[in-house]
């Protein structure tokens, strides 16, 4: 269904850097880096995870810019051979692990660029999730802006009207004369205000941002993890392809996201939950009205926290980390030597990032 979603978008030529070869760390490097990531998580007070299309490929949903991505193949007149429907796709191991880490208070917020609804299906509460580019299983009222869970994916994209009356009266007790629209952004749309605000504030107060399965090419979503770095926090990037912010990261892991988080869970001594349909709001949406609106009280509370921690704090201007070889990783007695940072050591990837420039796309979707 990624193909159908892509087909429904308006024409747009600048889709970023496509089809860059993937890189895999050796097993030894992979294990050491996962140990370091687990340490970062244990030591951090506020962890934000940024998720992209790469965390859903193991569910059968193709990504967009990978070697076999929708737009990479589109240039050759091809389509992905695997393309499960959004209705049938189930949360991956990564989705379930993230839910568990939130429940254990080791991850405090998730910023998603995906429209596939898999975070929703996993049972992750709205309180801990921003969906910057919409959700195929969410309708939004054009007047009161309340959001409601659907029992099936929308048939349109680009905020088109379904003609269904707003259901706010069943939630608030006050009638609304609005109509429901699909909540999936097209290229020209602005990001949802509260989702973006929560993402910006959480990223700013975080002392650790972890990027999973995204090349971070589309702004503003791709630049949010950099807010963590500007305020002195650590940045970890887990992706098979190079990203435009690799030179700002403290740790880069080139491996499958499912495998990375599974190893981290093993190190942390945490069990990986399995998907349960009873936790999936979509399964209940055909018989009851389920509100998916960000609670205004959460926005106000986070704004106060952001102002108390960040207001008046001078942001860092030099964000580029000193480059070190991965062999510099030192773990002594379970303590990371912060002067030795795991860095990329593939010159070809540096050439790719330096030689190819893309124009930033404002207020649109990484999954686009």
Automatic annotation (TrEMBL):
Its EC number is 2.3.1.286. GO terms for cellular component: nucleus. GO terms for biological process: negative regulation of transcription by RNA polymerase II. Residues 20-271 form the Deacetylase sirtuin-type domain. SUPFAM superfamilies: DHS-like NAD/FAD-binding domain. GO terms for molecular function: histone H3K9 deacetylase activity, NAD-dependent; metal ion binding; NAD+ binding; transcription corepressor activity. Keywords: Metal-binding, NAD, Transferase, Zinc. Zn(2+) binds at residues 141, 144, 166, 176. It comes from the Eukaryota. InterPro entries: DHS-like_NAD/FAD-binding_dom, NAD-dep_sirtuin_deacylases, Sirtuin, Ssirtuin_cat_dom. Belongs to the sirtuin family. Class IV subfamily. This is protein acetyllysine N-acetyltransferase. It comes from Arctia plantaginis.
């Amino acid at each position: 269904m990624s193909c159908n979603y892509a087909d429904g978008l308006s024409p747009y030529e600048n889709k970023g850097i496509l089809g860059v070869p993937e890189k895999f760390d050796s097993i030894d490097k992979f294990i050491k880096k996962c140990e370091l990531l687990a340490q970062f998580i244990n030591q951090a007070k506020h962890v934000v995870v940024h998720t992209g299309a790469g965390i859903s490929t193991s569910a059968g949903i193709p990504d967009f810019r990978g070697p076999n991505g929708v737009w990479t193949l589109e240039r050759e007149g091809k389509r992905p051979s695997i393309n499960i429907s959004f209705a049938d796709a189930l949360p991956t191991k990564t989705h379930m692990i993230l839910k568990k880490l939130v429940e254990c208070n080791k991850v405090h917020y998730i910023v998603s660029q995906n429209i596939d609804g898999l975070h929703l299906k996993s049972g992750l509460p709205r309180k801990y999730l921003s969906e910057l580019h919409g959700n195929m299983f969410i309708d939004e009222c054009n007047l009161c802006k309340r959001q409601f869970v659907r029992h099936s994916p929308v048939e349109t994209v680009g905020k088109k009207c379904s003609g269904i009356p707003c259901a706010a009266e069943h939630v608030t007790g006050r009638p609304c004369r609005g109509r429901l629209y699909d909540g999936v952004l097209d290229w020209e749309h602005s990001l949802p205000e509260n989702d973006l605000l929560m993402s910006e504030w959480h990223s700013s107060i975080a002392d650790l941002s972890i990027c999973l399965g995204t090349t971070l090419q589309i702004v503003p979503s791709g630049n949010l993890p950099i807010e963590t770095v500007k305020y002195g926090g650590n940045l970890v990037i887990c992706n098979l392809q190079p990203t435009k912010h690799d030179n700002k990261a403290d740790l880069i892991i080139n491996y499958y996201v499912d495998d990375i988080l599974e190893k981290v869970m093993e190190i942390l001594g945490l069990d990986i939950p399995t998907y349960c349909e009873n936790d999936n709001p979509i399964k209940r949406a055909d018989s009851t009205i389920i509100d998916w609106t960000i609670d205004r009280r959460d926005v106000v509370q986070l704004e106060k926290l952001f102002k108390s921690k960040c207001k008046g704090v001078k942001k860092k201007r030099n964000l580029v980390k000193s480059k070190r070889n991965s062999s510099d990783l030192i773990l002594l007695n379970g303590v990371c030597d912060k002067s030795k940072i795991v860095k990329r050591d593939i010159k070809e990837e540096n050439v790719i990032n330096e030689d190819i420039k893309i124009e930033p796309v404002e207020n649109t979707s990484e999954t686009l």
